[in-house]
């Protein structure tokens, strides 16, 4: 806390052919919890003889009140995870933030939506898994931190995040057909955000039908003060003037629909969901391109059945994404000496198919065995149509016939040695195969890179062997202790391995970090392997209602961590990888994905204290958390990109009858440990005050709030470099050194009604 005290003295700190299997693991560790969640609506579908004591590891979950408040305040589903200790959000589009936990983000986390592993089909990862579901549909979130069980992990080296929509509801025996539904809307002042959702259910004792629909949109938001000069969005857009405090390319619009049907028998459940998403546009302030379309459909089939020995669950699903990028309204569209080259159309087609089979086998009153097999098949095509000038006459094939298939099997044994001790041991074996077809550039200028890539052996098969060992000791009703160790492995994604061009313009179109730099892939990349040790000590009163304290130190050693290095050796049209690029400072640079060894470590501390009850105020409660994460490239000594600095949250909550309210203070220390190879920008420390209140009356719920009450100017440490306006295709046409600022004061209002 001395760090925070020192920040308070700074002027701008405080007051300023094979397939793969990933989905089932996450589902498996969640099976006991998922079964219990379904018990309220499906009393016939329960797991028999499940031991009553707590498992070896427990996920962190947002409270029902936090989920309800989050669903009423915006279109970004990842924001529902903000209350998880140690978790932050890496900035992206208005509905595409990336969860970040313990210094790991994006593909390093295993994020599962309704049991499905969804893959981001974009060179900028504009369509991450959580962007495919509206917050209004989310019913449960589970986050496994530290050493993660093998049933939750798989092809990832960080946390496991499981997000589920509402379980199917059925009529009670003898009740007859029932119907119920919900209507809701939300609005926020900053950016003129608006959204609405509707759901309707028809159910009998055996049949459940449900429809969900939503829409969300927002204009550009504004920072608390000007962070740049006011001016036109681009040289070709003199009439579109962006104010100095307007954060360009932060507008978005999205529509989602889902139709689900479920059939229930005395022994099991069969469910099918059809989902569709239409995103006409989503603009990105820290990318050189914007999303001009994202059309997605998915089918998700699930079967769950109980047996005398336990529970079996099977799932099969398919998802198709058609994604497009170009320059949005805040970025220059016409290029070339004569201003006659219309933008840079980039198109992506991603197809993901998955299958899972798992079982929870109750061996005895103290022993449970979880087994599973998972397969995932992913296909990706990324092509750029010619538009003129140097981007003609051929189609640029960025990823051609990309393949990434995964096959996994695992087993996990949970045993209870005594009423106080429970242990869990797991082993997972996986094979990840990736490949790419032949590529080409716009013209002969790209010939050397394309020829070298096409002549190389592009087929790669990686073999993973993961394990986890966790133990939980509960000596009394006042305390518990957890210790875990895991080995986890992740193979490179298709862009890390197969993005091939070292031309400056092409490299700037591949960026998974939001740092404004350009990237090229590396066929020689090896899988990342992380060894993680974590421990958790929790103390609380016997009932767990008056006070509690939770402390979690953790350490991850990562072999072959995929970082980046400056590239060189280019010539002519490939001059982006030049000798000058190796030493360039205070500028955007060009990088190649590269393996190194890394170390990440940190500590999470959280707690609560019931302050008492009064007739006037009701129940008062104080909650708080502090998190610290650090990461270092052990080969160069450089900092790891986008690692969150020391941060804290303090909240005073009040509950009186139907009213509840929260006053929340967020504290973030200055970010000074940065990634020098990327020329990452430091950020100043800051503090923010947020206020929220809700009122429930019969079937109505009203939510109101003010974010950033004092309208403080700040830049989130993971917000990225500002490339939200101007001639973003050019390497030096966008000013270097500007951070994406956070949102200024914003009033929020949400209203929903159930029947």
Quick summary:
This protein has 755 residues and is mostly beta strands. The protein is 7% helix and 48% strand.
Could you list the spans in which at least 5 consecutive residues all have pLDDT below 50? 1-52
Q: Which structural class is indicated by helix and strand composition?
A: mainly beta
Shape: globular
Termini separation = 48 Å
Give me the number of helical elements: 8
Description:
The protein is mostly beta strands. The protein is 7% helix and 48% strand. The protein is built from eight helices and 34 strands. The protein has a 22-stranded antiparallel β-barrel. A four-stranded mixed beta sheet has the order 5-4-7-6, with helices on both faces. A hairpin with a 5-residue loop joins strand 21 and strand 22 (421-435). The longest helix is centred in the first third of the chain and has 9 residues, at 31-39.
List the helices and strands and how they pair.
Layout: H1 2-7, H2 23-29, H3 31-39, H4 64-71, E1 87-90, E2 98-101, E3 104-105, E4 110-113, E5 116-117, E6 138-144, E7 160-165, E8 178-188, E9 193-203, E10 207-218, E11 231-232, E12 241-242, E13 252-264, E14 268-282, E15 290-307, E16 310-326, E17 334-335, E18 341-342, E19 346-362, E20 367-384, E21 396-415, E22 421-435, H5 447-455, E23 460-476, E24 479-490, H6 494-498, H7 504-508, E25 518-520, E26 528-540, E27 547-566, H8 579-583, E28 590-614, E29 618-633, E30 647-656, E31 659-668, E32 686-697, E33 700-707, E34 746-754
């Amino acid at each position: 806390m001395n760090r925070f005290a020192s920040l308070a003295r700074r002027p701008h700190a405080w007051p300023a052919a094979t397939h793969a299997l990933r989905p089932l693991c996450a589902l498996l560790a969640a099976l006991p919890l998922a079964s219990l969640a379904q018990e309220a609506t499906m009393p016939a579908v329960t797991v028999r003889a499940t031991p009553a004591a707590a498992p070896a590891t427990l996920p962190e979950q947002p409270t029902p009140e936090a989920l309800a408040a989050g669903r009423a305040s915006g279109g970004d589903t990842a924001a529902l995870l903000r209350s998880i200790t140690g978790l932050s959000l890496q900035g992206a589009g208005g509905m595409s933030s990336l969860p970040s936990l313990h210094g790991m983000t994006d593909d390093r986390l295993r994020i599962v939506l309704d049991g499905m592993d969804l893959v981001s089909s974009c060179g900028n990862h504009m369509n991450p898994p959580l962007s495919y579901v509206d917050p209004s549909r989310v019913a449960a979130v589970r986050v496994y931190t530290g050493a993660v069980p093998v049933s939750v992990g798989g092809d990832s080296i960080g946390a496991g995040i499981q997000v589920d929509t509402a379980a199917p509801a059925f009529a009670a025996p003898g009740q007859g057909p029932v119907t119920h539904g919900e209507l809701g809307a939300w609005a926020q002042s900053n950016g003129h955000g608006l959204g609405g959702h509707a759901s309707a259910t028809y159910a009998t004792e055996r049949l459940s039908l449900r429809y969900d629909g939503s829409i969300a949109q927002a204009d550009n938001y504004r920072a608390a003060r000007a962070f740049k000069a006011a001016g036109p969005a681009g040289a070709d857009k003199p009439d579109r003037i962006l104010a100095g405090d307007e954060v360009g390319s932060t507008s978005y619009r999205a529509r989602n629909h889902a139709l689900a049907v479920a059939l229930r028998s005395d022994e099991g459940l069969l469910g099918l969901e059809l989902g569709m998403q239409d995103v006409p546009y989503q603009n990105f302030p820290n990318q050189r391109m914007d999303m001009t379309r994202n059309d997605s459909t998915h089918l998700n089939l699930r079967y769950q059945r109980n047996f005398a020995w336990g529970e079996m669950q099977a799932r099969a699903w398919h998802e198709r994404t058609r994604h497009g990028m170009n320059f949005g309204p805040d970025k220059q569209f016409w290029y070339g000496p004569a201003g006659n080259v219309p933008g840079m159309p980039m198109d992506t087609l991603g197809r993901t198919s998955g299958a899972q089979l798992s079982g929870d086998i109750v061996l005895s009153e103290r022993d449970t065995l979880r087994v599973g097999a998972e397969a995932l098949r992913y296909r990706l095509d990324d092509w750029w149509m010619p538009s003129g000038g140097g981007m003609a006459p051929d189609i640029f094939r960025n990823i051609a016939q990309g393949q990434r298939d995964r096959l996994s099997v695992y087993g996990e044994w949970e045993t209870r040695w005594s009423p106080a001790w429970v242990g869990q041991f797991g082993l997972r074996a996986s094979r990840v195969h990736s490949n790419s077809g032949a590529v080409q550039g716009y013209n002969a200028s790209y010939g050397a890179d394309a020829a070298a890539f096409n002549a190389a052996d592009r087929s790669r098969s990686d073999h993973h062997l993961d394990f986890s060992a966790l133990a939980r000791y509960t000596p009394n009703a006042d305390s518990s202790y957890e210790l875990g160790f895991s080995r986890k492995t992740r193979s490179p994604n298709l862009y890390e391995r197969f993005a091939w061009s070292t031309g400056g313009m092409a490299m700037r179109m591949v960026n998974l970090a939001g740092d404004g730099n350009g990237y090229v892939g590396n066929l020689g990349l090896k899988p990342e392997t992380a060894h993680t040790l974590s421990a958790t000590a929790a103390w609380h009163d016997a009932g767990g209602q008056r006070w509690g304290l939770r402390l979690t130190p953790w350490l991850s050693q990562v072999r072959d961590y995929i970082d980046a290095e400056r590239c060189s050796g280019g010539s002519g049209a490939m001059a982006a990888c030049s000798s000058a690029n190796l030493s360039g400072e205070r500028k955007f640079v060009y990088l190649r994905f590269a393996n190194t060894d890394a170390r990440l470590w940190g500590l999470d501390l959280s707690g609560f204290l019931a302050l008492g009850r009064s007739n006037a105020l009701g129940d008062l409660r104080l909650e708080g958390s502090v998190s610290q994460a650090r990461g270092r490239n052990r080969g160069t000594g450089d900092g790891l990109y986008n690692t969150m600095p020391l941060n804290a949250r303090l909240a005073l909550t009040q509950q009186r009858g139907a009213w509840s309210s929260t006053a929340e203070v967020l504290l973030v220390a200055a970010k000074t440990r940065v990634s020098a190879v990327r020329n990452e920008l430091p950020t100043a420390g800051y503090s923010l005050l947020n206020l929220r209140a809700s009122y429930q009356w019969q079937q109505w719920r009203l939510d109101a709030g003010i974010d950033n009450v004092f309208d403080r100017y700040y830049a989130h440490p993971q917000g990225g470099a500002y490339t939200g306006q101007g001639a973003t295709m050019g390497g030096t046409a966008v000013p270097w050194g500007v951070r994406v600022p956070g949102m200024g004061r914003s009033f929020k209002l949400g209203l929903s009604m159930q029947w």
